[in-house]
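Appendix B. Extra example for self-study. Work through it before the problem class; the solution is given directly after the inputs so you can check yourself.
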Amino acid sequence: MAYLSQRPLELNELLRAVAAPERGGVSSFVGLVRDHHGGRPVRGLAYSAYEPMAEAVCGEIIAEAESRWPVRVALQHRLGELTIGEVAVAIAVAGNHRDEAFAACRYVIEELKRRVPIWKRETYADGTVEWVEEGRAKSEERSGSSVS
Amino acid sequence: MAYLSQRPLELNELLRAVAAPERGGVSSFVGLVRDHHGGRPVRGLAYSAYEPMAEAVCGEIIAEAESRWPVRVALQHRLGELTIGEVAVAIAVAGNHRDEAFAACRYVIEELKRRVPIWKRETYADGTVEWVEEGRAKSEERSGSSVS
Amino acid sequence: MPAVPSAPPVIRIQLFARYAELLGATQLELPANGINNVRDVLERLRALPGGAAIGAATLVAVNLRQAKPDAPVSPSDEVAVLPPLAGG
Amino acid sequence: MPAVPSAPPVIRIQLFARYAELLGATQLELPANGINNVRDVLERLRALPGGAAIGAATLVAVNLRQAKPDAPVSPSDEVAVLPPLAGG
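Solution. Structure tokens for the complete assembly:
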């Protein structure tokens, strides 16, 4: 399974990938495109990646989680243009017990954010476009002439 | 929305119920019927409830989570006969940030297990039927004459 | 108002899961006389055939809420005796 | 074997996101001469037009793995300069 996808993500597919008769608890996380960021209305965004490295690091993170806890992990991150409400990232972790499933799911999303080379370019309602860096937005270009 | 359901549960319905343009993180939990319990192969199980109280307590737990964290919570628990791999309980929690979503999701499943009057009757591969009590199984009746 | 003769008051008890099987009923009526609180309900049930497995610390709900041993119980209350929970 | 005259060796650098926009390219070739490690790569990039925004602590990947400032770099390596990550 490729971890990066240009197509819309379906959490159900990830759930099916990790479910098994001996695993009773599945913790999952879905990140959705929000309609605002830093108080500004967002129209949409685009994700891009250093793809070979992103695929490799996703695989490493999953291997780490699966060796640290007795779980099965599935993960996908969307690339390309997304609109409000679309799924940016989906993670499903199945384990025999919920403690392990929750802990591993949390580990995977934190490590993904910290280590996977993916970038986000937001388009705001006013047409401004910015690269988002760890919660901040770095101004890249401003449309129009009215810079307040 | 009723919190108890005789019909198969669909996590996607719960995700749709909590998703909103301003909420970017959704933590969910699904409990599935496992094929074993205490080392014994399970064939299937039945959930029953003290329904009016179970509905009321589910509502209380959700209200507690939604007042403690800025999240929206959806929850359903299955009743009736279930086979291996079916969804017993599904929880979806959407928040602006994942910290809140994970914390509230965990709170809801823990409180549900602790406080909602639901009971589980497992049928094992050998035909034995037992009421499960907090991880233990209390022998209720044994089929056949060979009690080892 | 003068008292009208009527059937002696009862406490209606709902039973679930293993306790319903042990006592052979999902609903019981106990004479209200002598039952003042949750502890009294459990004592009375434990004295019934099959009732010995109902522990003194068993969960009891009064009007859909868990109730402590000395919570009052009267004939108008909805009383339920809950085996150890196993949802989720 | 006698050395055969050839093009001088280069380090190929991949650029992404904001850094690609700042430097106006998604791929650059830097003369390998004088580049021994990751720190040298960053210094060379920072001297280019538009390169000033690339901090000295910028993430660099060598052969798909994050590399420290004194990690060695040679012409056969795949080198990538990574703006602050924003996945998830």
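Self-check: The CA atoms of residues 128 and 142 of chain A lie 5 Å apart. If your reasoning did not lead you there, revisit section 3.
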